[in-house]
Amino acid sequence: MRKPIIAGNWKMNKTAAECRELITALAPKVKDAKCDVVVCVPFTDIALAAELTKGTNIAVGAQNIAWADNGAFTGEISAAMLNEAGATYVIIGHSERRQYFGETDKTVNARLVQALKNGFNPIVCVGEMLAEREGGKTETVCRTQVVGAFEGITAEDAAKVVIAYEPVWAIGTGKTATDEQANETIGYIRSVVKELYGAKIADGMRIQYGGSMNAKNVDGLMAQDQIDGGLIGGASLKPDDFAYIVNAAK
Question: Where exactly are the structural domains of the chain?
Fold first, then answer.
């Protein structure tokens, strides 16, 4: 049995004061969760979030990690910095990083190598654009991104990775894949992992859905046999909504 994982991606939202308010409200609402709970906060909130979540069942994640230990990489953040701040998870290759900031399968792989080397729990994002889905290229895109991300990664390390399937056309648009569409694509992604690493790793790997999962659609999505949780955007900024999603994941 794969333990579900619900991760909130706050994106570029919440000042430190707002972070304190949100986590303080959230923690008691999710204390009996049957899934792993993660909040992936802006870099400036990580240390505070780590302090606020001590003694709770909430883990703290970052939204990116540099592929280098240190150096002339303006605007990047290193594994050592994230570790010292208190992050234990990290999102890698989110569609917005790919779309706006030039992230590629090669850089996703380099970041994943660095995250694993430094003991983080990586959440690697894959997913297709609207034109790619309409063009029947969903499986091709997902295969390319999964194979690229896991280039040179051992089976032992691969087992530590969470994949988030995020159809880009369903992020922040209010659109969402049907429960069956999401389940089918996640099942396909699992089959690619099986080709790379065998059935044991594939069957044990947690694969989230990351396309506008919210309090209204979580029950149907989580009822699907291939979906192991969610990477939650907008709904993670609302304590009641996020708590509902977390408590629905059993």
Answer: 5-248
